[in-house]
Design a protein that fits this description.
The protein has nine helices and eight strands. It is an alpha/beta fold. The radius of gyration is 16 Å and the shape is globular. It binds D-xylitol-5-phosphate and zinc ion.
Length: 216
Amino acid sequence: MKVAPSIIAAQFIRFQKEIAEVETAGADLLHLDVMDGVFVRNITFGPMIVEAISKISTVELDAHLMIIKPENYLRQFIDAGLNWLSFHCEATEKTDECIAYIQERKMRAGLAINPPTRFDEVKKYVEKLDYLLIMTVNPGFYGQKFITEVLQKIEEAKDWITKQKLRCLIEVDGGINSTNASLVCQAGADIVVAGAGIFKADNYKKAIEELRCSKA
Ligand code: DX5
Ligand code: ZN
């Protein structure tokens, strides 16, 4: 599994060092949680900060937009220098258009789904996607408890992707730590995101290795 540390759990006062440290510790991607205070009850940062991060980062950037009507902001975020870009199906009526636009701009397009959203509701998009981002917490804050019931949805998605021979990867996000990573891996995750599980650990390298190598 690839490991994507979520910088929302880093110490912002030493942002540049935190980013360099997780990269040295083996991060495959940097996960950037963008929140607008409307789709979720928290506000983080926008394209200007993403652009600043893209200038110092040595790994690919994976932005997770938790904003209403993402179609209005895709261009700005892509111009900021991303590689992977996901938005929520619950936040737009223009899912097809958003996927097409992200891919036209040569980025990997991801669709994020909240815990209550069923896989059936997004199945029709999966053949077009580069990745499906399955949330294992209700988005808004880092450090929440992993919702175990979502494991079934990961399995269902993996099963469908395998049977249909699709290229769509599965990214899993929310409450992942060294204890539950093996369950996520076994259920079919290709990429795991971790905020507190990495940035609140004493040793980033050890934390990343434990997540990556977790076997059920
Ligand atoms: C939740 C975010 C996640 C999350 C990761 O709204 O999308 O990326 O904060 O942090 P942990 O791993 O602490 O849940
Ligand atoms: Zn996220």
